[in-house]
Design a protein that fits this description.
With about 220 residues, this protein is of the alpha/beta class. Helices cover about 35% and strands about 15% of the residues. The two termini are about 30 Å apart. The longest helix is centred in the middle third of the chain and has 24 residues.
């Protein structure tokens, strides 16, 4: 029988790449979205749901669960999220993700892959990294047999739905200049294309091992 895969976050940078790659595999694909995707296809099933009312939705059975949703932040907010925005950020990047993961598990899923971030640490003083660390810890407690956390640094790729941010190309240009100097522990901070992250997440999910895996730059770069 075909592997049944759930993707939540198909409109995002990594999520859209996961969807492209899943289309190339012989899997039964379902995506959860807030709004219909413009590039609908018969290669997957699309379900539009209200993520704020997940308790009112009965999850079908899935083998693999991919979650790549997250609140969009400006570059400076990765360093400091204002207090009046923290509650909403935590609701999206922790509570919603955890609810999806729990409901999928209760419906039979035993493998999950979540897009996190390099430096995720529930004890961090940085609210962004602290939240990422907390959701990793929360998901580990659910009981999944296979758990994959993808921890990239800045993601490269086309962001057609994002607003124009002048600082992004400047930052990416600067990264190209200092890239050769980022070796050893600093290599995990190197920028990586979203397609490489997506491929690493899918390949790791389809391995036969059952364990906890954190994917970092060295795991992504083999797909370049």
């Amino acid at each position: 029988m075909k592997i049944k895969s759930l993707l939540v976050g198909a409109s995002g940078l990594v999520g859209s790449e996961i969807l492209k790659n899943l289309h190339e595999r012989d899997q039964d694909i379902t995506i959860f979205t807030r709004e219909p995707l413009h590039d609908s296809t018969d290669k997957h099933k699309e379900i539009n749901i209200d993520f704020k009312n997940l308790n009112n939705f009965d999850f079908p059975y899935f083998d693999h669960v991919y979650i790549t949703i997250g609140m969009k932040l400006d570059t400076v907010e990765l360093i400091h999220i204002k207090k009046n925005k923290r509650e909403e950020f935590f609701r999206v990047d922790h509570d919603t993700i955890l609810s999806i993961a729990k409901k999928a598990f209760d419906s039979g899923a035993r493998s999950i892959s979540v897009l996190s971030a390099i430096g995720a640490d529930m004890n961090s003083k940085n609210f962004y990294l602290k939240t990422k660390g907390k959701i990793e810890n929360s998901i580990k407690q659910i009981g999944y047999e296979k758990v994959v956390f993808a921890q990239p640094s800045h993601l490269l790729g086309n962001r057609p739905n994002d607003k124009i941010r002048i600082e992004v190309p400047i930052i990416e240009l600067g990264a190209k200049i200092i890239d050769p100097l980022m070796i050893g522990p600093l290599s995990d901070l190197r920028f990586i294309n979203a397609s490489c992250v997506a491929k690493a997440m899918i390949d790791t999910m389809n391995e036969s091992s059952e364990n906890l895996t954190r994917l970092k730059f060295k795991d992504f770069k083999i797909y370049q």
